[in-house]
Amino acid sequence: MARKQRIICLLLAAWMVFCLAACKGNDSGSSNANPPANSTGENQQPGTESGSTSQNGDPAEGAKLTGKLDLINLDDRDPSVLRGVRINGLSVGTADSFNGREASLTDVRCIFELGEWIEFYPDTDKEYALRVWVLKHRDDQAYYNTCKFSDLMPNFANYCDLHYPEDADNPDEWYWGSFYLNQEECEPGYYDFVFTYEGKAIAVLLTRFYAEGELSAKSDAELESLMHE
User: Fold this and answer.
1) How far apart are CA 160 and CA 177, in angstroms?
2) Helices then strands (H, E): number in the chain?
3) If DSSP codes are grouped into helix, strand and coil, which group holds residue 162?
């Protein structure tokens, strides 16, 4: 009788081990320590910013250089705030050609290198309260119509205040402001130059920044080709 009880106990123990193993196998994979690939953090804004390049190295979808300032149609916008602009760089192109443009709304230099000092010469009746914000390019350009600009905004890279250079010997030939993008903090790719007046966006220029030294050896003709490719 005792022998039979021992056999029954052994069989029950073996059955319980089998059941526990089966339950563990069914539970495996039911939890995931990593978030889903399409999950979005609280501070991210999906579908608004273009990446610098696609996965195969091609330009970001939707970003196309034109050298044209896109004016923001606001009822209270004063046309004299920005009739055009000339943008020069100190590392790329010559003063006689690539950097020798007149102030314009439709033919503005829009390619630069990281680390290159960039100078602004606006055609305007205003002497201050103009600023250029530099942000990673956004596909939804309408965002700038009502955007509240601050140094806490996402994808903010830099800004440049534009002031009439009244202290210069020849103020009409002097730049109003300058800046550069640090290659240690910014990556090559597409950026928006957003021109604002009294904190309100008035125009946007799509630009592209290349790695430092990538454009320096190119001729003016090659640079013009890159601007209109």
Assistant:
1) 6
2) 3, 9
3) strand
Tens-digit pLDDT profile for residues 15-29: 555 554 554 444 433
State pTM to two decimals: 0.75
User: What is the number of alpha carbons within 13 Å of residue 120 lying toward its C-beta?
Assistant: 25
Three-state DSSP class for 19? helix
The pair of structure tokens assigned to 114 is 């990281």
C-alpha–C-alpha distance, residues 134 and 179, integer Å: 10
Tokens 């928006």 belong to 192
Grade residue 77 by pLDDT with cuts at 50, 70 and 90: confident
Task: Retrieve residue 80's tokens.
Answer: 């004299």
- Render pLDDT for 195-228 as a digit per residue (tens, 0 to 9): 999 999 999 999 999 999 999 999 999 999 999 8
Q: How far is CA 52 from CA 39, 115, 190, in A?
A: 21, 17, 6
Query: What is the phi/psi pair of residue 20, to 5°?
Result: -65, -40
Other Cβ atoms within 10 Å of 37 Cβ, number: 5
What CA–CA distance (Å, rounded) separates 211 from 92?
12
Q: Is 9 exposed, middle or buried (0-12, 13-18, 19+ CB in 10 A)?
A: exposed
